[in-house]
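Blackboard transcription, Thursday session:
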Amino acid sequence: MKRKRALALLGAPPLLARCVFDPSAVRVGSKNFTESFVIAEIYAQALERAGMRVERLFNLGSTQIAIAAMQRGNIDCYPEYTGTALIDVLHLAPISDSRAAYAVVARLFERRYGIVWLDPSPMNDSQALATTRAIGAARKLATLSDVARAAPQLRFATIQEFLARPDGLPGLQRFYGGFRFRDVRTYDIALKYSALLEGRADVASAFSTDGDIAVDNLVVLRDDRHFWSAYNVAPVVRKAALAARPQIARVLNAVSPAITDHAAARMNAAVERSQQDPADVAAAFLRSIDPSTPLRMTK
Amino acid sequence: MNPSAIRFKHATVRYPNSERNAIEDISFECGGGELVVLLGPSGCGKSTLLRTVNRLVPLDAGRVCVDEKDVTEVDAVELRRSIGYVIQAVGLFAHMSVAQNVAVVPSLLGWSHDEIAGRVDELLQLVGLDPASYRNRHPSQLSGGEAQRIGVARAIAARPRALLMDEPFGAVDAIVRTALQRELIRIVGELKTTTLFVTHDVDEAFRLADRIVVLRSGHIEQVGLPHELFDRPATAYVRDLIHAGDDVYRRYFMHGRELLRGQPQ
Amino acid sequence: MSYFATHPLRVAALAGGHIELVAVALVVALAIALPLGLFAARRPRVAPWLLGTLGAIYTIPSLALLALLVRGFGLGFTPIFVALVVYAQFMLARNVVAGITGVDPAQVDAARGLGMSPLQVLLRVEFPQALPVLLGGVRIAAIAMIAIATLGGYVGGVGLGVLIFNGLTLHQPQMIVAGSLAASALAIAIDALLRLAERITRAPAGAR
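(Written on the board underneath:)
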């Protein structure tokens, strides 16, 4: 698979053809964190296996950039989360129930943006707060309510988006009360956990499928009052792109159901901790679910 | 071949920010293959006057005619290709060989490859250089005298009927200069080219000129044969100019040009 | 270094894309800078203003310019391509001006006097002699562009910058190292190549 892909890269059409819009390529985007990368790569490879030409525009800076890119036609599809769509894009209240959340975003995105939601994955990468086992034990932190109370003695590491989004820190403060941290620092999304692991922070914002959680023995603090929204991932596709190539739906819908919490966390860890190439990880995943080549995903 | 006639009628060129003009109301004519020297101190306008003939300097008033045709009525580029041009700094093209330099105008005129090759060799011999050893040299490999000989060869390559020379021998040492002057007389005599020669050197003027035009501050002081300037200077300035140097030497030379013309090379 | 070993074809493909991006941008930049520089070289009073303006543009941080261009052109190849063309103008135009104005004026005078048209003077005398200086400008521009083009990985999915920025996102330092080393190697290679070209085109010294 790697060789075939590499050959495809070498055979890429000349640059000048890329200057002019190439209608035959499906453009897959991703946001700038590992999980988005890996899932987008899964989508991209699935489409390539189905015989379509794919262009990858990964590492987009934020949800806003991704949506803008979709609307401008720079990309045709990317993996989006129901919770993010609900709160960041539609500015609605969080919905904890996965099915309900999906129904709302699917309907409104189609109506307002001409963007279609394909089938969602079982994986629920909800937001979370995490801490080390040591700190959790020492300060008796097991739930969000615990953190809300103990916040004035705690240092918080997070990303900029978390401080701005309504279901980020402001929402927690409103919903739970408390959460007035002694110190709040923002980091690049790629460097956030270092602060926690190196002792410069006590609690960090997180996502429940972060690879670091699996590998570093971090503790996810339980959302005991169900504040946070469901965050199921699904491919979102531009209506026009789907109309031009309806097989996109068939291909991606075949892949979505296999992406579980477990699979996602393992893939995240494989990339970030085992330093594997996301392309290899995605390829292994696809091999594992393709009935024609029943290889177990061991790496 | 008929050498050109050059006629200046009230030629005037203004300086951009000055009351004084570079050249003022200049009128004279020359032709028939004669070598006319424009003589004067620096700033007298002699170079400017020279460059009005090939339109490197535009006239502000008056006319310049070459063969009865006003130079402004002919395409400037075509005009220049029919008039030879030699400057003190020579200006050989550093990225071209000697042969390519000499061949410039013929190739602009579309001569055939063979015609050009033959002409280059002919010219190199004419200016006293062995074609075989000089053809492929580069300007950086030439001495001052050699370079200016090539400059002359380049200027006459397409058989112009007029030749403009702006202090061409000013940058070489005295011995080389004398040799070049002799060569020039010989060449100009052979080619029957009307030549305008600019210099500030009175000795050089007397050695080379059929006639001399003395200029000062943009005006003509006197036009005449060398011995006329010597015996009957028209103004005090001309008298001081001519007699400032070695009179005996000059007296010899003003009649000695005939002798020089006959000298074997 | 290990990323080179495990993914040689990917690095090669991205390097190829990087070279393509810089090469195309350089050609387009030259097509603009040559007439622009020529225009300035013929007008000594205009030249300082023009070069000054281009120099000011050059100091705009590349990421900021890129963000502006993404607003106008979207993502992908175009914004980084335009940014490269814009930044290259300063270095290229400046060397065009220096090259043309540095040609021996005696040779230009002789060329005109002998009967070359202005275009012929430019093509047969000025340009060949300005070529070494011009190539020097191309060399400097190319190296700067190889570096700036790494930002193509941030917005365009093009070139070795993809390795660098992906490596940052995915917490994979070996990708970052691979991308950076490859870009540096490219810069060194292009520098050597163009220095050679400069040397070949340099006319024998000492014009007469």
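Lecturer's comment: Chain B has twelve helices and ten strands.
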